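Researcher: Please translate sequence to structure tokens.
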Amino acid sequence: MAVSASSSAQQARQALAERLADLCRDAGLTGLDLAERCGWSRSKSSRIMNARTPPSADDIRAWCQACGAEDQTEDLIASLRTAEGMWVNWRRMERAGLKQAQEARLPLYQRTRRFRSYSSWLVPGMIQAQPYTTAALQAIQRRRGLVDDVADAVAARMERQRVLYAGVRRFAFLVEESVLRAGIGGAEVMSGQLGHLISIASLPNVSLGVVPMRPDRERWPAEGFWIYDMAQVNIELVSGYLTITQPSEVAMYAETFAELAALAVYGAAARALITSALDALE
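Model: Translation complete:
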């Protein structure tokens, strides 16, 4: 499991390590005793208990058996999977193609009622027009050398966009003005995307804010992120996909969103910036 800079991921690793260490102590075993029962080096037991090395599912099974706590095996493996899922590198996430990566997020979208999205580099997927999505996913597929299932992945993302129109959900999107002016796919694709944003902004359950480019900002741009209710935050980084569930960290992103939202313009002022970007394309 990759080590993430997020304390959410690290705390999940640490909590699992502490539970395993407690099992060892409750069984009256030392780290050396456990290593001998499992056929490991003593250093391996120590690294696992101190969260320096993550255990595998087989390690957990052996650990529980050595401690006479087989009834806790599945719960501990579930905790391992949760910790692993907080940080997923792109190669692992997209190993079966882009379509599966798109479909995997659908349950999260279906159960969320309040969405907040901030983007400093690309139009958020939920409000992308189909040609823009195609251009973006084609670029990812070529850059990462993935299997070419772009058409299926685009269809999956378009299907996911149905949550915009189904059920009682609220969406707040913030984009930097630079997103309107530095796009992907060429002038025709960007023109269609900007027109799509104007249409999306008219939906009653959607708020679309544009953070204007200006030289005197007190809150600089941040990495793009999604907030799902107050349950989790997802961040797309260069190396992988980060999920944050620690309440204090989710609150930090909610606060950041509020600060950026205060800098944004909406309604007619936002449409004016979008129209200006359209005029620049022409």
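Researcher: Any highlights?
Model: The first strand starts at residue 87 and ends at 89.
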